[in-house]
Write a structure and sequence with these properties.
Blueprint: H1 3-22, H2 26-85, H3 93-134
Helix pairs in contact: 1-2
Length: about 140
């Protein structure tokens, strides 16, 4: 609440107290009851407005969740359709991954054998050179 609203509220309260001080007896009580009833009616109207806003927000939220559910179901159908359609073909994702992995593993094995062969050749040459130097 801003300062102007607080000052206005305080002025209204002071005026209410002054009015109550002037009105005594049955007139004062009647005035207070009338003011209480008016405030109660305003509060009821505000509560009804808040309830209507909550109902609208609830409906919108339910609609949004339903839309998300529809999108998720569509994505699931699409993914399942892709797997069903490709189950007989070679482009099935797990099969492709396994094939790629086997190819890479084979290439790494060939490279390892090549490096090992070269190291063996180098060690033989090194042994020959050492033998020639020592003799």
């Amino acid at each position: 609440m801003d300062v102007q609203a607080e000052i206005f509220d305080l002025k209204l309260r002071v005026e209410g107290l002054e009015t109550c001080g002037r009105l005594t007896g049955a007139d004062g009580q009647q005035h207070l009851l009338h003011e209480i009833n008016e405030r109660g009616k305003r509060l009821e109207a505000e509560i009804a407005a808040v309830r209507a806003q909550l109902a609208t927000a609830r409906t919108e939220t339910i609609e949004q969740f339903a839309a998300v559910d529809v999108e998720v179901a569509a994505i699931r159908r699409e993914v399942n359709a892709h797997f069903v359609a490709s189950s007989g073909e070679d482009d099935h994702i797990p099969t492709r991954i396994a094939d790629e992995f086997a190819t890479v593993r084979s290439e790494i094995g060939q490279e390892f054998e090549s490096v090992r062969s070269e190291l063996l050749d180098l060690s033989i040459k090194l042994d020959r050179l050492l033998k020639d130097d020592c003799m």
